[in-house]
């Protein structure tokens, strides 16, 4: 299997839940669209490549939440097309403080595997999993990741719920625990383009529920999962 593993960490980051517009609530972990967007950017690829990679499922991801130091909020000022308030408005945004993730990429070809590996080690632009001011540090890039089938039903990765049966298990009662939180995410899009090739509109066509949690395990029924000896994960 063509698997790359790396660490991603930032000081203040947010991953906006799509349905929240007037108040930007954040996921606890980057979504697949965040991760593929970052890869597209550091490889210097086009927006068209981004949608093709998503829609053709050329890269599957798995995310482990290693740490979230805390949560805070900020106020974001932006321009509007209205004259009220001098054409400006303010949105409150959730922020994650000192979030650290282990990210696995399952890639469908050796050629693409090599391209992504080079980009993670020598990115063509500054890595970000969201807005340009929400930078991340990429480290501990591994390309010889050996994974095998996880004989235990328990995982510690974020996963996408497709009607699965699962339950949370607490191993250390003295740690702060975030029980499973569920939010809808799009995994592929129908894109309408102009004759010149630029994007005019997009519509989400595959919407699932991302399940994320902190300092607990999930026992997941009847779903293929994998282990590298450190983490137990589901790809999506």
Describe this structure in words.
This protein is mainly beta. It is 14% helix and 46% strand. It has helices at residues 32-43, 47-55, 110-121, and strands at residues 3-9, 12-13, 23-24, 59-79, 88-107, 137-142, 148-149, 154-155, 159-161, 166-169, 178-193, 199-214, 217-220, 226-227, 232-233. Strand 14 (226-227) and strand 15 (232-233) form a beta hairpin. Helix 1 crosses helix 2.
Give a brief rundown of this model.
The chain contains 3 helices and 15 strands.
Provide the fold topology.
Blueprint: E1 3-9, E2 12-13, E3 23-24, H1 32-43, H2 47-55, E4 59-79, E5 88-107, H3 110-121, E6 137-142, E7 148-149, E8 154-155, E9 159-161, E10 166-169, E11 178-193, E12 199-214, E13 217-220, E14 226-227, E15 232-233
Parallel strand pairs: 3-5
Antiparallel strand pairs: 1-5, 1-6, 2-5, 4-5, 7-14, 8-13, 9-12, 10-13, 11-12, 14-15
Helix pairs in contact: 1-2
């Amino acid at each position: 299997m063509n698997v790359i593993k790396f660490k991603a960490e930032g000081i203040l980051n947010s991953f906006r839940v799509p349905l929240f517009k007037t108040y930007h609530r954040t996921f606890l972990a980057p979504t697949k669209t965040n991760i593929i967007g970052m890869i597209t950017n550091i490889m210097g690829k086009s927006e068209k490549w981004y949608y093709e990679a998503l829609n053709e499922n050329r890269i599957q991801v798995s995310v482990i939440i290693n740490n979230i130091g805390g949560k805070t909020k900020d106020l974001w000022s932006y321009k509007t097309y209205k004259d009220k308030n001098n054409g400006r408005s303010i949105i409150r945004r959730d922020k994650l403080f000192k979030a650290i993730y282990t990210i696995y990429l399952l890639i469908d070809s050796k050629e693409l595997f090599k391209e992504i590996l080079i980009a993670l080690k020598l990115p063509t632009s500054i890595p970000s999993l969201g807005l340009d001011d929400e930078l991340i540090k990429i480290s501990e890039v591994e390309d010889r990741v050996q994974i095998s089938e996880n004989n235990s039903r328990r995982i510690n990765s974020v996963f996408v719920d497709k009607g699965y049966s699962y339950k949370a298990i607490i191993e250390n009662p003295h740690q702060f625990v975030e029980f499973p939180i569920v939010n809808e995410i799009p995994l592929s899009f129908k894109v309408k383009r102009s004759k010149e090739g630029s994007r005019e509109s997009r519509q989400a066509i595959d919407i699932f529920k991302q399940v994320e949690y902190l300092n607990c395990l999930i026992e997941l029924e009847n779903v293929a999962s994998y282990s590298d000896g450190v983490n137990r994960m589901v790809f999506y």
